Predict the structure.
Amino acid sequence: MRKSLKMTIGIGLILSCFGLILVGIGLSSGGIDKLQVKDDQALKKEVQFDNIQSLDLDLSVRNIKIESSQDQYFKLTYYKKLDEEISHKVQHQKLNLKQKEKFRIHFFVLSDFFNWFHQDDTNNVTLAIPKNVQLKDVSIKNNVGDITIKNQQASKITVQQNTGNLNIYNSQIAKGKVSSDVGNIAIQNSSLSDIDVVDHTGDISAENLTVLNLVRMTNNTGNTNVSLSPQSAQATIVSAKTDVGHTDISHQLLQGYSGKNRLAVKGDTGNIQIK
């Protein structure tokens, strides 16, 4: 009985060593590298449109950039990897871009994880829009990745960001809600009208902000810092409240809870500064 057990253990050790040798040979010949290369291969899609009035973007893992084009055409650029389901279509002057993320096993090192969003353009979706075009309806959903909106006008907007930063630069947007579950929200040189800005975990910053009608900012965990444009500083009624933290409102601003143009800021945990 003991002899049989020793033989079984011996065979097991031999097979284990043989398996390790095969793994070593595979690694030395670039096995994982080749698997990664296959996984990372991407086909570039670049499409041009004449007229787009609305956007419906629903993505799983991408950085989204909406910016000005250099000509009179709309241009969409994105990359499709071999094992991804991502596609676009235009219907009734609405651009739809959808991505379905399949379950897959990734091989990566720690540095790859931290640098994922900065590797190359294959992680980006870029939409270039002609100058002075006012979009009627913008809807963006993104699970992982940053969203950047620059030099745009939108009559209606909905942005739902799960993990990543949301940036709005030099834009005029109205009637809707922009929100982030985990990440910072930064707004610069822009005007908001009838907009809710919601951040569950992260900081909200707004620089040179013009407020039209009612703008509400809600931050569950994080600081909120707002500087109003000279135009809004004279014509905006400001209110602020936080449960844990302190509020600092410039004495030069009008404070209250009623008025044509209002900025209402509320926080659960974090400081609020408005100037």
